[in-house]
Specification:
By secondary structure, the protein is an alpha+beta fold. It is built from 6 helices and 6 strands, in the order αβββαβαααββα. Strand 1 and strand 2 form a beta hairpin.
Length: 184
């Protein structure tokens, strides 16, 4: 192999490697920035190395008491590189009608929520937020297509930013399958 062909081969390998790395970055949660309930920017890149549970929430749902369990496991595991991110959404029977300020007060007063809560978004339909497009579309998350079936559906994200599991809304946050994933 001559010198020119060798250089061309090296350039091709480097290009493919860079493209592969870029594609891998495109399938992680770390590319997203969202707005917190308080109006501050929240950068998922700050969570590299942590296990993440993303959950769409609602204040007036039969599953709303899950906030208490979410807070309990957050308190227990937050020191072990685990975080819960809540996304209020009004997509199911208008069960989250409040403003960001009203949601923040409700969560703190009724459940003592201290895990990060983001600004209210849409988790389905034509106005679906980009973070939920990532969570629900295989071509974006690289793992699986899913749909948000109700409030309190949970998405588990590995420390490398990749989607690990989709958990049904009716599965409680302290379910053994979730706890074992957090602890592994």
């Amino acid at each position: 192999m001559n010198f020119i062909n060798l250089n061309l081969l090296i350039i091709m390998i480097a290009t493919l490697s860079a493209r592969s790395q870029k594609e891998d970055e495109d399938t992680t949660i770390f590319q997203y920035k969202v707005q917190s309930l308080e109006g501050d920017e929240f950068d998922f890149n700050s969570l590299k190395g942590k296990k993440i549970m993303i959950v769409n929430t609602a204040s007036k749902c039969g599953l709303t008491p899950q906030f208490k369990m979410l807070q309990t496991i957050y308190e227990k595991y937050s020191e072990n590189d685990f975080v819960i991110i809540g996304f209020p959404a009004n997509n199911f029977l208008f069960q989250e009608p409040g403003s960001d300020e009203e949601i923040a007060v409700f969560c703190e007063q009724n459940y003592g929520v201290t895990f990060p809560m983001m600004s209210k978004i849409s988790v389905k339909g034509k106005n679906k937020h980009p973070i939920y497009k990532f969570l629900t579309q295989k071509n974006k998350n690289g793992v699986i297509d899913s749909s948000v079936s109700w409030n309190f559906q949970k998405y588990l994200i590995n420390p490398d930013g990749h989607l690990a599991k989709v958990i049904s809304p009716r599965t409680l946050p302290d379910d053994p399958s979730i706890i074992s994933w957090i602890e592994e």
